[in-house]
Amino acid sequence: xxxxxxxxxxxxxxxxxxxxxxxxxxxxxxxxxxxxxxxxxxxxxxxxxxxxxxxxxxxxxxxxxxxxxxxxxxxxxxxxxxxxxxxxx
Length: 89
Hints:
Elements: E1 5-9, E2 15-26, E3 31-41, E4 47-57, E5 60-64, H1 69-86
Antiparallel strand pairs: 1-2, 2-3, 3-4, 4-5
């Protein structure tokens, strides 16, 4: 399986490599969602995972902040499904 990565620039101008965990296209709204990590961990030693809308421009990915509650719900459901796939009950 090919690893999918992209780079972002933080507020200090530092380039950070991010790994794509999953992407999802919602046919109803024609929006694309991305779940990714910057390979950092929180104070409880859990991997930081982020979600966003995105647009692909040639070889670049443009992240778009989620401000709509419906979009946030879709992204969080996607994360929940991924976790359930990894750790079935």
